[in-house]
Amino acid sequence: MLDIDLIISTMFFGKILNQGESYQFNAQNADEFQGEVLSITNAVLTPTSKDSASLFIKQDNQEYLIATLTKECPQIILNIFISLLDELQIFVKGNASVHISGFFEPEQD
What we know:
- With 109 residues, the chain is mostly beta strands.
- The protein has one helix at 4-11; strands spanning 12-17, 22-25, 37-45, 53-59, 62-69, 75-83, 88-93, 98-104.
- The relative contact order is 0.36.
């Protein structure tokens, strides 16, 4: 019998990104139980942030704006699938912190 808590803890992804910090996605981040595809589903401005923040993904020296979060719009639902075999970075511009969350897609047999 499989423990439900184990499934939830191995599939969940969450990071808090502060101004100037980035998170590198790569194959070393994938554990054999998590799989190689990450789905980012949510981004939220930290409630104590006084300024806005923009969330970017960088691939091959190209930056892509994913979302801009403000006090008026502090949360966004996303549908981004990232292959951990690709070299990507996610980072925040702005004087604020952003919580990102999602889950690892189970590997298909």
